[in-house]
Amino acid sequence: MNRPSPSSPAPPFAPRDALSRVRVVLSNPSHPGNIGAAARAMKTMGLRRLYLVRPKRFPDPEADARAAGAGDVLERAVVRETLDDALSGVVFAVALSARHRNLGPQRLQAREAAPLILERAEAGDGDVALVFGNETTGLSNDEVQRCQRAVFIPADASYSSLNLGAAVQLLCYELRLAACGGRPREATRTLPFSSPPASSDDIERFYAHLMRVMVRTGFLDPRQPKRLMAKIRRLFGRAALERDEVNIMRGILDAAERAFGGQISEDRFQKTEDRR
Amino acid sequence: MNRPSPSSPAPPFAPRDALSRVRVVLSNPSHPGNIGAAARAMKTMGLRRLYLVRPKRFPDPEADARAAGAGDVLERAVVRETLDDALSGVVFAVALSARHRNLGPQRLQAREAAPLILERAEAGDGDVALVFGNETTGLSNDEVQRCQRAVFIPADASYSSLNLGAAVQLLCYELRLAACGGRPREATRTLPFSSPPASSDDIERFYAHLMRVMVRTGFLDPRQPKRLMAKIRRLFGRAALERDEVNIMRGILDAAERAFGGQISEDRFQKTEDRR
After folding, report:
1. Nearest Cβ partner of B252 from A40, A153, A214?
2. What confidence score (pLDDT) does residue A197 get?
3. CATH number for the segment(s) B189-275
């Protein structure tokens, strides 16, 4: 195990470039100490790109202290207002979640997920992201559904509450081993017609478009979209949409909208929505 | 974070008794926060037996705080004056050590070491121990030589300084996976709300329905359906559609057809097709 790839000679555990395309996203972290611990955990495993969504306190001396020699990761941390913003440009996101979710994306154990995540990072068509939730409340269902896979760390059933920094450490460790271990590739990407993976932004626009059409045709009650949209996200999340496929699906939706009487602009739709 | 929901099903990773024969020994820890973090890390992975050699401050409120729900591990922690005392009754000890040592014991990567450690614990002729050194100075040569193996965690060469609690977390995680056989059971099909897989017939009827809508809206040229349909089949084939999902997709198509002026029967559609 852990043989270096032919292209990376001397050091026994030379990470591949793929690790530089991995974002670690902490959504709504409460404790600055955990932000620092996450930065340190990342850097020990060769990851550097920390994203913070609405951190309660940041920057903060406690984060600096716990980061130890990883202050540079904190300095370059990107702070965003929403998870969507933090995932802009991301083609594959995994949500760390201990809980089974109704209608969540496919669940994988951390060790199984690592080679998949790496593979998507190696493809080089965008960033990948590991998404971690708040220390107490974890990720919301909406946040989990924003991701293509849910990842769990096998823990003791009687006490499975890992510290946030410890969870970041484990995931980054698995990614590093996967990056250095030369696991066999999945065959999926070699299928004919395969195009680059769709970005999160493209996929979100597709969901918004589909939702608009479903509301317009009376299939979806816009006051209660959640359950149906969750099921749909679960389906397409499992498929891991490619760019061409998103274009096809949106083409179908455009054609349907034209067929039932002129495409409505997003503005008009918004107004209709607001009136309900 | 990562609290299990009350409804989470039977644990997929029943640990073996061997984990109860593993001691985690912290030699000369300086920061009580790290002792608490180690206790929490242990308990999440099903380990409970913490030994402390000359801790600088213990007990300590900071240790309690960082232990979170693992206060019981701290309460039962055994404090000793020397490493020899802490290793009394131990048949196999491994030293966590990043550095190569002259005359040190055989070095193994954490993942390689875990099954060996477990094997010794399962033999049942005594305890095994994971030995961790001081946060700044690590283990002394004497301490490492007191152990049968040296274990290292593969880390980035430019910054390999793992936090003590994080190192304990990684080792305990590797032990837990080794104890549980490494591989999880396939969780995908046990998700709540996942419905039985759709039958081939159901799926074919869905494709026919989708094709009809695409032709009707002008998106698909019925004389040349092949390439587009192949792409669509590839997408949904990858997702491995469930029965409920096929129903949802067909519901969307029905609603769209009604929206653009009365659903056409398959018969009429067939005739239209034949005429081309």
Report:
1. A214
2. 83
3. 1.10.8.590
Mutate which: A235, A241, A249, vs B, most B CBs within 10 A: A235
Q: Between B193, B232, B251, which is nearest A219 by CB?
A: B251
Question: What residue spans define the domains of chain A?
Answer: 17-181, 191-275
Across the beta sheet with B127-132, the strand order is: B78-80, B49-53, B22-27, B127-132, B90-96, B149-152, B106-109
Least CA distance to B177: which residue of chain A?
A154
The pTM for the full model equals 0.75
pLDDT given for residue A21 in this prediction: 95
| Architecture of the domain delimited by B17-179 | 3-Layer(aba) Sandwich (3.40)
Q: How far apart are CA A27 and CA A190, in angstroms?
A: 34
For residue range A65-113, list pLDDT tens digits in order: 999 999 999 999 999 999 999 999 999 999 999 887 777 788 999 999 9
| Chain B partners within 8 Å of A191 (Cβ) | 234
For domain A17-181, give the CATH number: 3.40.1280.10
List chain A residues with CB under 8 Å of B8.
99-100, 157
CATH 3.40.50.2300 fits A191-275, yes or no: no
Closest partner residue to A100 (CB to CB) among B8, B248, B260 is B8
pLDDT score of B109: 95
- H helices of A100-239, in order, are 110-123, 141-145, 164-181, 200-216, 226-239
Asked if this assembly's ipTM is beyond 0.90, the reply is no
Q: CA–CA separation, B166 vs B95, rounded Å?
A: 15
